[in-house]
Every structure is written in structure tokens, then in C-alpha cells.
Amino acid sequence: MFKDLESLRQTCLQCTECGLSDRRLNVVFGEGNPHSPLVLVGEGPGDQEDKSGRPFVGRSGQMLDRALADNGLSRDDVYICNTVKCRAADWSTGKPQNRPPTPEEVTTCRQWLIPQLGLIKPRVILCIGAPSAKNLIKKDFKITKERGQFFPSEFAPEAMAALHPSYIMRQQRPDNDGGYHLLVEDIGKAWKRCHS
Ligand code: URA
Ligand code: SF4
After folding, report:
1. What is the distance, to the nearest Å, from the Cα of residue 46 to the centroid of all Cα atoms in its chain?
2. 159, containing H or E segment
3. By CB neighbour count within 10 A (0-12 exposed, 13-18 middle, 19+ buried), where does 98 fall?
4. In the chain, what percentage of residues exceed pLDDT 90?
5. Residue 145 belongs to domain spanning
6. Beta-bridge partner residues of 26
7. How many angstroms is it from 34 CA to the middle of ligand 2?
8. What is the value of pTM for the model shown?
9. pLDDT (0 to 100) of residue 106
10. Which residue, 34, 56, 92, 191, shows the most beta carbons closer than 10 Å to its own?
């Protein structure tokens, strides 16, 4: 159907298949090294990502960049995309509040994510956060219990999940890194597996 990632991207940028298209500023398709053995799949764009059209550029993205750097990696070593390509937010009050995508939105957006993974053919998929793991590993995935473990995947030889930076930030206390060390560890483990 799609001969390469660029033609998939061009078509995806026009998508109005779910309600998230109504208020988005940009479709955030994904970026990085399309030849990387490791693809990171987050939840969906937030405010900064919606404004810039780029994945993981806000506060979560800064933490992700740091966790990659703590493994000697940069964004150019991996490919980064999301479960849904448009921002999910609650607009009922004056200012938009980010929310997780609904199961329907996740399912509708698989029409882009699955071919994207099919064209990149990563060795390992690292799901960042529970919605991504539920979408790509198994629907009853328990992130706090099952992160850091490899699972077989329909879309790559293996997949793993890591805690989402926004979850880590909510858990952080002066004497507790909120699980940041686990994010660093899981990225390192996934990268090492790609080269084993
Ligand atoms: N959180 C995500 O899951 N993805 C992004 O691109 C940004 C924040
Ligand atoms: Fe299309 Fe996905 Fe955006 Fe919905 S979230 S409009 S399915 S690209």
C-alpha cells in the first residue's frame, strides 16, 4: 500500500479519520533514524508537539533526551513516534487539558502506526507508557509490573515497555527519582538487545 515512509507520512498528514483532527495544529508523524533497530512509541502529542509537529519536544521529551544521553544515545540513533498522531485534550474548560487517547482513537490511528512499524522493521519496539504497551504488546498490560521485560510482538521480533516520563514526573519527590533510573535502564536494555 505505502512504498516508503515518506509516502505514508504525506498521506498521514492529511488524516481526518478521528475527532482528534478537529483541533490539532499539526499531525505528529514521527522522526529519527528510520534505519534504527529501535523504535520508541509514546502515547501521543502534547501541546508543544502539536505546535511543532515533532514528537517528544516538551517536558517529557527533555527527560527522554536525558535518558537516551545517559545511555550514550541521541534521538538520531533511534526512531520516535506515537500511538496517536494528533493531540488528545479535553477542551471543555477554558484551557485544554491533555488526556489519554480513547481506545477508539488508538484503534483508528493504528492505520498509520502499523504500516510505519512495517516499513521501519525494528528489531525491538520500546513502548513508552501504558497506552502504547496495551496497543502493541497486549491489552491487559500492567506497566508497573511488566515494564523492562521482553515480549514477542506482532510488529517486531520483541517489544518492551518503559515508564512514561510524565508518569515519572508525577512520582518524583526530593528523595525519589520517580523511576527515572528504570527508564534509563530499560532504554539501555532495549538498545543492547538490538545488538545481541
Ligand atoms: N508524550 C508522548 O507520549 N509523546 C510525545 O510526543 C510527547 C509527550
Ligand atoms: Fe488520523 Fe490518528 Fe490524527 Fe486520528 S489521531 S486524525 S486517526 S492521524
Report:
1. 12
2. strand 158-162
3. middle
4. 97
5. 5-194
6. none
7. 21
8. 0.98
9. 98
10. 56
| Structure-block grid coordinates of residue 91 | 477542551
CATH number at residue 69: 3.40.470.10
Ligand 2 centroid vs 14 CA: distance in angstroms? 9
CA of 6 to the centre of ligand 1 (A): 21
**Predicted confidence band of residue 60 (pLDDT cuts 50, 70, 90):** very high
Q: Which of 23, 25, 108, 135 to mutate to test the pocket of ligand 2 (most atoms within 8 A of CB)?
A: 108
Q: How confident is the model at residue 79 (pLDDT cuts 50, 70, 90)?
A: very high
Interval 90-122: pLDDT, tens = 999 989 999 999 999 999 999 999 999 999 999
Residue-wise pLDDT for 6-16, tens only, equals 999 999 999 99
- Per-residue pLDDT of 69-78, as tens digits, reads 999 999 999 9
The CA 48 to ligand 1 mean position distance, Å, reads: 9
Q: Which residue has a Cα nearest atom 4 of ligand 2?
A: 18
Number of domains in the chain: 1
- Ligand 2 proximity of 29 Cβ (cutoff 6 Å): no
Output phi, psi for 167, to 5 deg: -65, -45
- Residue to probe by mutation, ligand 1, list 20, 29, 31, 43, most atoms within 8 Å of CB: 43
Residue 176's region, left for phi above 0, alpha for psi from -120 to 50, else beta, is beta
